[in-house]
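Here is the promised in-class demo. Please do not try to memorize the tokens; focus on the logic of going from shape to residues.
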């Protein structure tokens, strides 16, 4: 679920410097795991959050926008999850960008993957097979496997603090900078949306439905419903094992990511 990121454009009228594409911005560029019903599995997944109130609010096309956008501190759960959601999805001008709605849908679906790895383990599977860890905490699911684990670039350091690689902060800081220029636009709305999702999750739960919850069949394969992994949407990326690729006609491709459900097994 992580891959090299793209050039970033700006929604403002004035030209601003854009970063060079950096390897590892975002989704997985390698196989992250395999879900086989009695063998342990490694997978990919991560989440994002809500923005603090900015200096003022302006009405935008999708509701009020905190401007300039501000993320919660990275050492808080809501801020950490928000950064993951942003890091895993494309912004305007980046490779894989389709629309604001598409990136929002990807953020929400990624958050559901993380949640499902904790609270919706299907019959016949163990959490360790799906999430590579036994945990009840979203940060533990994100950081499972270390620096090059489930969510590339998100891990716990030797002191047990949840942290992210410098490249992650560099890209996100640049996005926030672009979003803070001119008038509120798509950049600001997306950052606010990510922070909002994360903050709501920490306080009350996910704000939005799981689009894959009622999925029961992919082609001739019976599946469990819900998504349990995501990776960069490339044909050569696949978690393998009992993970089943959700096709385009089931909205399986969102925000340059491909989502995967699980094959239904008999306990």
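The designed amino acids, position by position:
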């Amino acid at each position: 679920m992580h891959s090299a990121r793209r050039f970033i454009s700006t929604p403002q009228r004035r030209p601003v410097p854009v970063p060079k594409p950096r390897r590892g911005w975002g989704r997985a560029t390698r196989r992250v795991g395999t879900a086989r019903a009695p063998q342990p599995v490694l997978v990919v997944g991560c989440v994002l959050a809500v923005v603090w109130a900015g200096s003022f609010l302006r009405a935008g096309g999708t509701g009020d926008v905190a401007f300039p956008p501000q993320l919660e501190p990275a050492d808080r759960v809501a801020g950490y999850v928000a950064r993951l959601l942003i890091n895993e999805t494309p912004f305007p001008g980046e490779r894989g960008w389709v629309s604001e709605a598409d990136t929002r849908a990807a953020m929400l679906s990624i958050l559901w993957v993380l949640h499902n790895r904790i609270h919706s383990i299907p019959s016949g599977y163990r959490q360790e097979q799906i999430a590579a860890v036994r945990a009840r905490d979203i940060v533990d699911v994100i950081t499972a496997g270390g620096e090059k684990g489930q969510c590339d670039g998100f891990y716990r350091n030797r002191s047990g603090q949840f942290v992210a690689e410098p490249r992650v902060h560099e890209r996100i800081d640049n996005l926030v900078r672009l979003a803070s220029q001119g008038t509120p636009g798509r950049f600001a709305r997306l950052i606010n949306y990510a922070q909002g999702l994360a903050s709501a999750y920490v306080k009350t739960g996910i704000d939005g439905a799981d689009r894959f919850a009622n999925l029961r069949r992919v082609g001739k394969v019976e599946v469990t419903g819900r998504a349990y992994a995501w990776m960069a949407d490339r044909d050569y990326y696949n978690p393998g094992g009992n993970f089943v690729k959700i096709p385009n006609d089931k909205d399986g491709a969102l925000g340059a990511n491909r989502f995967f459900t699980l094959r239904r097994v008999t306990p």
